[in-house]
């Protein structure tokens, strides 16, 4: 016998495999004994649990009922104190019923056993005015006699509902006033007064004293009668019993089933151990092969726990990421993930936790601080609480994809951003590409155009022949470099003009694959160009139709850029291109411009340069010239001038002025002629007085009895009368003298004194009082003194003539002067005459219109011209006291100076 055949050598191995079998036999016997013990104890535990649960349910029901008793007692006390009306009873009762689902009615029954109030209002079981039944009357009387809360026996109503009633007596002192009745639904008690978990475990039933089941919370029949418990329900008592029976949670299994299972499992374990022995030997060989593959793989292989930490990594981690495999176990997988990829990686790990296989890409941190793209394929093994992962380095592929994606996005962005339509056709004329701008232009979708052949959908029916000819030229390579101008049709039928520019489409190999067309919508440019041409023609027609000469010149070089027909007719048809001064255009000197046009910039525009009248240096004709600085079409600053020939107007104005001056002087002469007799009488008095004083002096001197002081007094009086006569003559000479208007600062009081001095002669003759009212401290006015005297005298004489027929006591003419605003003075002549009608007032200032039989009709018209010459206004109003008010305004000297400075 050899050494290898010695049985003693196999003893350790034999005992190594025999020990598990022995242990399994002991374990099986122990389990059989333990199963029997556990079954007995489990039954006792279930019975104790149901007893506790039923007692808890009974206490819960009792508490709810006691709460209802307290509420009914409060209602009874309020009714006893007469502090509760029907509406309040309904509100409080309905609210309590809504909060307590086991209650169906709350009723007040009077001391005569008749229902008074009931809630809810729409109940049909307890109607106001009904009497209690015999069964209810017994409980009613018991509650009345005992004076405490009394429960009746459960009974079934005519509607088939089993109810339980509680009666709460109402007493006021010793007086019995009825009861408050709370009506419980037995079915609702068992359904609403226990929680949902209780109903899931037990069938709860209420039984009466006869053992009859009144209500149950479940109709399931699968009950375990061995696990049941019952307890009296108090309140309400009366033999009510609460019984709970556990539902059967498992199917009916034989008591021997655990024993059979234990024996069967033991046999299975024995067989498994035998198979395990064979399997272990095979597994050792497989693990060696798996470890060899794990360590030699070029991809990253790892085992990760469900908590996300590495358990084992292969050497590829060090080659790709730079981490030694021995350092990674225990490291969270998220520590090597790029922070921007953490959220997506967490989402994938959640899927792994649910047992799903995942495959995703992310960036991972290398040991040197750089990042690499990895694609992970991970399979979870939930039984082992591990996941097995394979990662492949795709950094190079990602870089190529990113570059390609960026280039594609850039090209797409370019195509979508351009407003020029792009269309490509192959060598047969079939459309193979259109961009979004072209689709927007024609209104067709890309799918409707790609693959289309002639005639294309955007060709108008009336232009098919032209479009076909252009397509043939394109395919033949004879398209003009300037492109085609074609009319195309939108999908909605609208027509538009477009220009097609054609070029060969060359592929990467250098071969032509078709023709590329860039399409531009020229509908609006054509319309704008046509509108501009029409507007230009209208503009030139308007300017050429003007009588005024219009020109535009460069502000710096003075070169004429534009001139209308009237300008060319005056200065020559070759004026454009020459300078303004070279063609002798009437224009102001440089100093007359408001600003120097040569210094203006575009930011200063527009700007008024000059507005005035100039005389042509050669022809002597007068022109009204206006020059305006503006911006020319090319952006430079230009002067636009408009010269209107006003020679005829100037001549007419001069003639009119001369005639008006003559007429004005004539009017003064006429006025003086009318006053001649009165003036003669006026002068006769001082002249007679002078003669008398002189004669008296001569007589005294001849008699020799004269004294020097007497002669001096007489000669002084004669001198005063001579001065008076001279003053009258001087006024007349100044008044009728022809002179140019001279405006200066004059005091209106002085003007009124001189004018009133003339008018007093007529006023005394007619018996009319003249009253002058001049406000103190009036500012000086800027006027011609003689002209204003003429106006005042004319208005005063008109007023005197208007009052010659009124009563003597009303013959008063008032001349008033006062301030009229901060910069004017108003003079008013107020008479009490016969007045002027509305019709006459409308024509009052019309030349040659007069209301006097012997008048010329020019006085008021001349007066208005004089006042307007002085920048004032002459108006006529009705005097509220009767008569007419003529008033005019004159500017003060300060106001005239400001106007002069602004000019």
From TrEMBL:
<dbReference type="Pfam" id="PF02518">
    <property type="entry name" value="HATPase_c"/>
</dbReference>
<dbReference type="Pfam" id="PF08447">
    <property type="entry name" value="PAS_3"/>
</dbReference>
<dbReference type="InterPro" id="IPR036890">
    <property type="entry name" value="HATPase_C_sf"/>
</dbReference>
<dbReference type="InterPro" id="IPR001610">
    <property type="entry name" value="PAC"/>
</dbReference>
<dbReference type="InterPro" id="IPR036097">
    <property type="entry name" value="HisK_dim/P_sf"/>
</dbReference>
<keyword id="KW-0067">ATP-binding</keyword>
<dbReference type="InterPro" id="IPR000700">
    <property type="entry name" value="PAS-assoc_C"/>
</dbReference>
<keyword id="KW-0597">Phosphoprotein</keyword>
<feature type="transmembrane region" description="Helical">
    <location>
        <begin position="15"/>
        <end position="38"/>
    </location>
</feature>
<dbReference type="Pfam" id="PF13188">
    <property type="entry name" value="PAS_8"/>
</dbReference>
<keyword id="KW-0418">Kinase</keyword>
<dbReference type="InterPro" id="IPR000014">
    <property type="entry name" value="PAS"/>
</dbReference>
<dbReference type="InterPro" id="IPR013655">
    <property type="entry name" value="PAS_fold_3"/>
</dbReference>
<feature type="transmembrane region" description="Helical">
    <location>
        <begin position="257"/>
        <end position="276"/>
    </location>
</feature>
<feature type="domain" description="PAS">
    <location>
        <begin position="535"/>
        <end position="573"/>
    </location>
</feature>
<keyword id="KW-0472">Membrane</keyword>
<feature type="domain" description="PAS">
    <location>
        <begin position="406"/>
        <end position="478"/>
    </location>
</feature>
<keyword id="KW-0808">Transferase</keyword>
<feature type="domain" description="PAC">
    <location>
        <begin position="482"/>
        <end position="534"/>
    </location>
</feature>
<feature type="domain" description="Histidine kinase">
    <location>
        <begin position="678"/>
        <end position="894"/>
    </location>
</feature>
<dbReference type="GO" id="GO:0005524">
    <property type="term" value="F:ATP binding"/>
</dbReference>
<dbReference type="InterPro" id="IPR004358">
    <property type="entry name" value="Sig_transdc_His_kin-like_C"/>
</dbReference>
<dbReference type="Pfam" id="PF00512">
    <property type="entry name" value="HisKA"/>
</dbReference>
<dbReference type="InterPro" id="IPR003594">
    <property type="entry name" value="HATPase_dom"/>
</dbReference>
<keyword id="KW-0902">Two-component regulatory system</keyword>
<keyword id="KW-1133">Transmembrane helix</keyword>
<dbReference type="InterPro" id="IPR005467">
    <property type="entry name" value="His_kinase_dom"/>
</dbReference>
<dbReference type="InterPro" id="IPR035965">
    <property type="entry name" value="PAS-like_dom_sf"/>
</dbReference>
<protein>
    <recommendedName>
        <fullName>histidine kinase</fullName>
        <ecNumber>2.7.13.3</ecNumber>
    </recommendedName>
</protein>
<dbReference type="InterPro" id="IPR003661">
    <property type="entry name" value="HisK_dim/P_dom"/>
</dbReference>
<keyword id="KW-0547">Nucleotide-binding</keyword>
<keyword id="KW-0812">Transmembrane</keyword>
<feature type="domain" description="PAS">
    <location>
        <begin position="286"/>
        <end position="356"/>
    </location>
</feature>
<dbReference type="Pfam" id="PF13426">
    <property type="entry name" value="PAS_9"/>
</dbReference>
<dbReference type="GO" id="GO:0000155">
    <property type="term" value="F:phosphorelay sensor kinase activity"/>
</dbReference>
């Amino acid at each position: 016998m050899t050494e290898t055949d010695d049985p003693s050598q196999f003893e350790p191995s034999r005992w190594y495999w025999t020990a598990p079998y022995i242990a399994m036999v002991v374990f099986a016997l122990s389990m059989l004994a333990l199963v029997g013990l556990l079954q007995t104890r489990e039954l006792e535990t279930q019975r104790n649990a149901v007893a506790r649960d039923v007692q808890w349910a009974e206490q819960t029901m009792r508490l709810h009922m006691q709460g209802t008793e307290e509420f009914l007692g409060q209602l009874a006390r309020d009714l006893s104190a007469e502090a509760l009306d029907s509406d309040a009873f309904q509100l409080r009762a309905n609210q309590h019923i809504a909060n307590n689902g086991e209650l169906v009615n709350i009723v007040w029954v009077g001391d005569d056993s008749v229902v008074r109030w009931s809630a809810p209002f729409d109940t049909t079981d307890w109607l106001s005015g009904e009497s209690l039944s015999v069964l209810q009357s017994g409980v009613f009387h018991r509650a009345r006699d005992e004076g405490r809360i009394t429960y009746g026996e459960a009974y079934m109503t005519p509607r088939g509902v089993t109810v339980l009633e509680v009666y709460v007596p109402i007493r006021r002192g010793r007086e019995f006033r009825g009861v408050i009745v709370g009506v419980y639904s037995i079915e609702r008690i068992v359904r609403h007064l226990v929680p949902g978990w209780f109903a899931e475990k037990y069938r709860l039933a209420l039984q009466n004293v006869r053992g009859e089941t009144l209500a149950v919370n479940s109709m399931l029949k699968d009950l375990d009668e061995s696990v049941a418990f019952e307890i009296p329900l108090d309140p309400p008592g009366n033999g009510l019993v609460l019984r709970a029976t556990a539902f059967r949670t498992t199917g009916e299994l034989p008591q021997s089933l655990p024993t059979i299972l234990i024996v069967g499992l033991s046999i299975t374990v024995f067989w498994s151990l035998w198979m395990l022995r064979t399997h272990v030997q095979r597994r050792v060989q497989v693990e060696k092969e798996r470890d060899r593959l794990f360590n030699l793989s070029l991809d990253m292989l790892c085992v990760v726990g469900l908590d996300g930490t590495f358990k084992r990594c292969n050497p590829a981690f060090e080659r790709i990421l730079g981490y030694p495999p021995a350092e990674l176990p225990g490291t969270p997988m998220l520590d090597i993930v790029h922070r921007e990829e953490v959220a997506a990686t967490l989402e994938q790990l959640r899927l792994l936790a649910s047992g799903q296989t995942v495959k995703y890409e992310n960036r991972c941190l290398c040991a040197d601080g750089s990042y690499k793209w990895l694609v992970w394929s991970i399979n979870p093994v939930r039984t082992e609480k591990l996941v097995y992962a394979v990662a492949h380095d795709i950094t190079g592929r990602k870089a190529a994809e990113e570059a390609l994606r960026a280039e594609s996005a850039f090209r797409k962005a370019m195509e979508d951003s351009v407003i020029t339509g792009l269309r490509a056709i192959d060598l047969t004329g079939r459309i193979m590409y259109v961009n979004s701008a072209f689709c927007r232009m024609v209104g067709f979708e890309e799918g409707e155009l790609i693959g289309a052949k002639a005639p294309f959908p955007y060709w108008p029916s009336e232009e098919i022949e032209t479009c076909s000819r252009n397509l043939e030229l394109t395919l033949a390579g004879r398209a003009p470099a300037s492109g085609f101008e074609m009319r195309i049709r939108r999908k909605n039928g609208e027509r538009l003009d477009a220009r097609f520019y054609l070029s060969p489409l060359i592929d990467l190999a250098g071969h032509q694959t078709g023709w590329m067309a860039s399409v531009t919508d020229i509908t609006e440019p054509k319309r704008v160009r046509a509108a501009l041409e029409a507007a230009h023609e209208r503009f030139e027609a308007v300017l050429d139709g003007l009588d005024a000469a219009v020109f535009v010149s460069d502000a710096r070089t003075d070169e004429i850029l534009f001139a209308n027909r009237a300008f060319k007719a005056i200065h020559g048809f070759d004026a454009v291109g020459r300078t303004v001064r070279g063609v002798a255009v009437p224009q102001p000197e440089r100093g007359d411009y408001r600003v120097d046009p040569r210094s203006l910039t575009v930011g200063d525009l527009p700007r008024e340069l000059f507005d005035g009248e100039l005389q042509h240096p050669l022809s002597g004709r007068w022109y009204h010239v206006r020059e305006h600085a503006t911006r020319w079409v090319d952006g430079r600053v230009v002067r636009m001038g408009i010269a209107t020939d006003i020679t005829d107007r100037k001549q007419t104005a001069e003639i009119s002025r001369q005639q008006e001056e003559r007429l004005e002087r004539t009017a003064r002469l006429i006025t003086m002629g009318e006053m001649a007799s009165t003036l003669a009488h006026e002068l006769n008095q001082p002249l007679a007085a002078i003669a008398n004083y002189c004669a008296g002096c001569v007589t005294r001197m001849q008699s020799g009895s004269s004294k020097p002081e007497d002669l001096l007094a007489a000669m002084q009086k004669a001198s005063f009368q001579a001065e008076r006569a001279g003053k009258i003559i001087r006024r007349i000479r100044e008044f009728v003298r022809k002179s140019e208007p001279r405006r200066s600062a004059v005091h209106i009081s002085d003007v009124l004194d001189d004018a009133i001095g003339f008018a007093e002669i007529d006023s005394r003759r007619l018996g009319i009082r003249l009253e002058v009212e001049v406000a103190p401290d009036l500012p000086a006015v800027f006027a011609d003194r003689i002209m204003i005297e003429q106006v005042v005298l004319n208005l005063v004489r008109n007023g005197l003539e208007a009052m010659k027929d009124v009563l003597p006591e009303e013959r008063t003419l008032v001349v008033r002067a006062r301030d009229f605003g901060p910069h004017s003075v108003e003079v008013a002549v107020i008479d009490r005459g016969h007045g002027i009608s509305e019709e006459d007032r409308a024509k009052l200032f019309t030349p040659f219109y007069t209301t006097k039989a012997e008048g010329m009709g020019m006085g008021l018209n001349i007066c208005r011209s004089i006042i307007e010459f002085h920048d004032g206004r002459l108006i006529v109003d009705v005097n509220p006291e009767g008569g007419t008010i003529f008033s005019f305004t004159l500017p003060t000297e300060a106001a005239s100076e400001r106007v002069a400075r602004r000019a």
